[in-house]
Amino acid sequence: MSTARNKLRAQCLEAADQISAECAAVLAGVGHDGRSSSSSSANRTATTKPDLDSQLAGCGEPLVQLLGRQAAQVLRLFGGGSGRPTPGQVSGQEGGPWPGPAPKAGDKAVKLLLQRLDDLLSLSYARFYAYLFAKLPACWRLLYTDAAVLRFAVLYLSSSWPVREQGVGPTAADAEEGEAKEKADADAERQLREMIKTLDLAVILAGGAGERRGRRWIDAAFGLLEEDWASRRSNGGRSAGETDGEERRPKRPRASRPGATAAANNPWASTPSFSSYEPFTPPVGHPIPRVQAPSFEAFQAYLSHREGSNPGPLPLVLTALIDDWPARTTRPWCKPAYLLSRTFGGRRLVPVELGRSYVDDGWGQQILPFGEFLEEHIVRATEGRVPAAGDPPSLEPKSPRTTGYLAQHPLLSHLPALRADILIPDLCYTSPPRLPRPSTATTTSGRTSAEAPQDEDDPDPDPDPHLNAWLGPPGTITPLHTDPYHNLLAQVVGRKYVRLYAPWVGRPASEGGIGDGGARAMRARGREGGVEMGNTSSVDLGVVEGWDRMAEAEDGDQEEGWEDEFRRLPYLDCILEEGDVLYIPVGWWHYVRGLSVSFSVSFWWN
Amino acid sequence: MPLYATGFNAWNQLQFRVAASDAQVAEPDDLSSFACVLPDERVRRVRAALSYTEVVLDNGETRFAGMVPVVHQQLRSADELTYTALAEAANGTVVVHDGNDSLKQYPSVHHLLSHAAPSPVVFANHPAATQTVAYAAGFAALDPPTGRVWTWGDERYAACLGREPSDDSPAAAPRLLADLVDVPTGPVAKLAASPSGYLLAALTAGGDLYCWGDAARCGPALRSLHLDENDGAPVPVVIADATDTDGGGDAEKDVADVGVGDAHVLVLTADGEVYVLGDNSNGQLGLGPGVATATEWTRVELERVLEPGERVTSVVAGPRNSFLVVEKENKAMS
């Protein structure tokens, strides 16, 4: 029996024990005034534990009770005892025997338990839609996450693969041949995918909310699950052989330590890189100045310096700033095989934007396995294309495949295995100037993200930068928009075209200030269907410049000749090469277009 | 008038007689078919909340099943009229009538109970008889004598308003649903919606049913309502018995009552049949185990459910369960 398996089992039961106890505490804490202890200041002072999790009370007693009952049921069915296990039973992790025959996935009690956890997931998830994103009470994200943790526990503890290895010796397993073995493998794979989906959705949809469980619990569970799975594979799923901690991921090439530069030592060197196919390259009209990695002090001075009448600093391309990132050397993000190895063999789920641009009709989001995204939307979108002669003209009809873009996703906190591959530039800890308030403040992002605070006045009290990853095929487009942050956009793989317009665009220098932040000149959108889109331009730059066809007949209320006026507006642009970092000052309108397969990381800070 | 029920039962909200010992031990399962849950009572009114069922009997007594949230208990003991008329949307917002001519909207039921700031938004000129129903992100109110319907709520789900929001007709305040003003079969007599759903239904005095709502949020199980085919305006719903070929075609049935859940609808036709549509993952359609959804209107086989001489007089939908109020014929049973 592997250590990972015992640890994960213990972690599951411990979570169920915690949830059961916390729900009981919430129910007991309902005071005589009927307000739960978390919402009554008088009771809160009496509570010794300032526990975020007690916010579960906000879901109301029935749902808290239902969650608590399911947690108790997990312990009853899988805890090896008749009721809640003693603390020793749960925390005694090492080497304990797998208790009795665990209930199987098809058992009636397990089915009902999964049904109730699905009920809790759908009931809490429904609240994510009912509330405005920024106003969703934390309790619903906590409820979702806890229900997901329990669902994972039930799937893991009732799955056939850990139990089978324990119960069936090598002799019986040897008899398993051909079809039976294949079927068992397919079943195990299906069960594994369901487990991964349950936890990944909790991270993607609910932000992995919670202190005691939440993201930390989920990260640990993924680590143990992958270890356990690897030991099953290495044993052919036959025996319960011991797994040495050093051999946790035997299928992976052993990566060199960051800093070891000899390419020969890089086990990924021989695997294929992403295609460099680049179907269209826009001309650069007003190149952004390029400087070699400035010091912290030099960059701070640049941010504080006012050039001429400009109300703020200008964009700048910084070179040689990320050359030492493992992502560009020993842990190469340009290698699909490496990325797959860091995403549980491509099984981890990621949110992908489908469609050309988030303002187009038919644009949508889909959550799918990273490996599927890589294969469907990146590798297959570029395979067989040679970057040399015979480039198709840009206006040739695009392939019918929908563009898939892993955009504005906090991938590196979602997949901590990749987080170590990059280094946050010191420059993100400079103090940039604040943007003077536009006369019409509309800075809420058109995209929504659990990581992006929506408060317009003080968007980020957090001293640490917000990291987002952007991975897509050639032709991804982020339309002209502004963000309420300063931004360092690091180009790790491939090439990207970026065009920027100042927040004072269309405003005579004599007037000073930034006026409406460029909203009029950029033809900013307004409120659309109850969603504030004022940070996004209605101009489709690719169409105006003749790089793209018009998606469909544009609305006819645009006055004639606006395009000529728009084309006369001053701008800066660049093509980001691998290893370049673009500084985008807060409030600058930017249009971003992936030219080849492109993988970037953005750092937002204030 | 016995009460039959099917569907979501996670808090025993379909079990009016549970031995305390049973409730402690076993996790209650859902009901997959309609079963009689209150045999010997005369039921006047049913309130089917997510976690509990409240039944008011003809003799004025009340029966509870399931688990009542503490705030509902408090509201009920503080002001039963307010509790009875409470409309509580899944986004937390609640609306009550002030008893005079105004609707008051609070950010949450806690604000209503504690009179905490902010003070409620007041919508005047809504007579005391106004009936308000909540959907997940807003409300619809019916003035019974005129049959006029007002809707308001989150602009993101404009289709739930049944009208186009604009500067003159903002989403956030009650505005007339003009398309339901002069419908052929008379004024609207009933509104139905689930406080955690995105589908609304209006029933006219003449037995016509109209539905509107957010097609994407209602999901594929309700696709046959074609909610997105009328620019968000209410669409007429035709119930016809496809299996009944007598008389040479599908006869459109008059609708006597309607219940709307989170993702399911049940309808009582004037000829006493019950039809269901939508999600059945908790057994809320009563079509038996193994049926995930009904994507077309499906007749419930009442002959397998009811006793001889019983007929359905009204239907009620909880968010994830369904109820039939049944009458025994006066004649002695054969």
UniProtKB/TrEMBL annotation, chain A:
Residues 439-452 have a biased composition (Low complexity). Residues 263-274 have a biased composition (Polar residues). Residues 33-54, 81-100, 232-274, 384-403, 433-475 are annotated as: Disordered. It comes from the Eukaryota. PROSITE patterns: JMJC (PS51184). InterPro entries: Cupin_8, JmjC_dom. Residues 441-606 form the JmjC domain. SMART domains: JmjC (SM00558). Residues 453-462 have a biased composition (Acidic residues). This is JmjC domain-containing protein. It comes from Remersonia thermophila.
From TrEMBL, chain B:
It comes from the Eukaryota. Transmembrane segments: none annotated. RCC repeats lie at residues 147-196, 207-271, 272-328. PANTHER family: REGULATOR OF CHROMOSOME CONDENSATION. This is Regulator of chromosome condensation 1/beta-lactamase-inhibitor protein II. It comes from Remersonia thermophila. The lineage of its organism: Eukaryota, Fungi, Dikarya, Ascomycota, Pezizomycotina.
